[in-house]
Prior knowledge:
Elements: H1 2-9, H2 19-59, H3 65-98
Helix pairs in contact: 2-3
Amino acid sequence: MSNTISNISAWFPPQTATPSQNSSLRGQQDSFSTSLTDALDQVELVHTDAQQQVKQLLQGDRQDVHNVMIAVEKADVAFQLMMQVRNKIVNAYEEISKLQF
Length: 101
């Protein structure tokens, strides 16, 4: 349990931080931001692929409806997952904003 508390403290910069400590914190923030951006890009790719497959099906270029439906469902599940992650981030932010420092 002490590991959880020590991991949480890594998110908050110390009051008197040296430049090397600040750069490591920036690295953590950049890493989180990069991870989030990569996840959003993946959701966008899945969505774009599903759109293209539906477009091809409607134009008559594709005959396999089942693969198109699978692509659409993958896009739907990816979007739902993204929304759940967003909700968790918003809830965490709201909880942190309630804390008094």
